[in-house]
């Protein structure tokens, strides 16, 4: 079981996806990620997109910390059922329904949704190829709000994502087997 670390829903327990189909973000990585995002002022009233959401824990954490709108995108049926349950749990403790789960493939969702998003959290399965990660980043080009950030969580054995020409890396953060890549639109 994971939990909401801080914010209005801090301490709430979230359901986990049964089996090994997803790889949950550890509390240590979540703490580091959200400390950085809080320091940058990225969460207050933000429009957040959580791609490859798994249980939806990252998006739910963003909602707890003040995001105005959080969309969880997950294709897997079991994971989506957990996303729905976790969204209900977190929304019950917040004013209004902030978290909305969508059962769609990430690329299909991006092809049919415009944005803009202030923060995109992308935690693709480690086996997902680099070409697919690059295609996802290309779909996000031009769809971030002013100062918007994309965070890509990958294995520390994976190469840096191939950022599209319109995006650039801000920084990276390594936590054991996990690396977080932070990017933004250029210019």
Automatic annotation (TrEMBL):
Gene: rsmD
Coiled coil: none
Its EC number(s): 2.1.1.171
Protein name, per record: 16S rRNA (Guanine(966)-N(2))-methyltransferase RsmD
Keyword Methyltransferase appears in the UniProt entry: yes
InterPro entries: DNA_methylase_N6_adenine_CS (IPR002052), RNA_MeTrfase_RsmD (IPR004398), SAM-dependent_MTases_sf (IPR029063)
UniProt cross-references to NCBIfam families, sorted A to Z: 16S rRNA (guanine(966)-N(2))-methyltransferase RsmD
Keyword tags: Methyltransferase, Transferase
SUPFAM superfamilies: S-adenosyl-L-methionine-dependent methyltransferases
GO MF annotations in UniProt: 16S rRNA (guanine(966)-N(2))-methyltransferase activity; nucleic acid binding
Source organism per UniProt: Kocuria coralli
Top-rank taxon: Bacteria
């Amino acid at each position: 079981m994971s939990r909401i670390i801080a914010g209005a829903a801090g301490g709430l327990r979230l359901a986990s996806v049964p089996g090994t189909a997803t790889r949950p973000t550890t509390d240590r990585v979540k703490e580091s990620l959200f400390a950085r995002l809080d320091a940058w002022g990225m969460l207050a009233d933000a429009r957040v997109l959580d791609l490859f959401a798994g249980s939806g824990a990252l998006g739910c954490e963003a909602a707890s910390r003040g995001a105005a709108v959080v969309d969880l995108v997950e294709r897997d049926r079991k994971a989506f059922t957990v996303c729905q349950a976790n969204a209900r749990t977190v929304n019950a403790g917040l004013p209004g329904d902030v978290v909305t789960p969508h059962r769609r493939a990430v690329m299909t969702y991006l092809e049919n949704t415009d944005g803009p998003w202030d923060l995109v959290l992308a935690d693709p399965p480690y086996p997902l190829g680099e070409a697919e990660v690059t295609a996802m980043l290309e779909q996000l080009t031009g769809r971030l709000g002013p100062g918007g950030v994309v965070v890509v969580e990958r294995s520390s054995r994976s190469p840096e994502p191939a950022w599209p020409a319109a995006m650039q890396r801000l920084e990276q953060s390594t936590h054991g087997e996990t690396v977080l890549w932070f990017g933004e639109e250029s210019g």
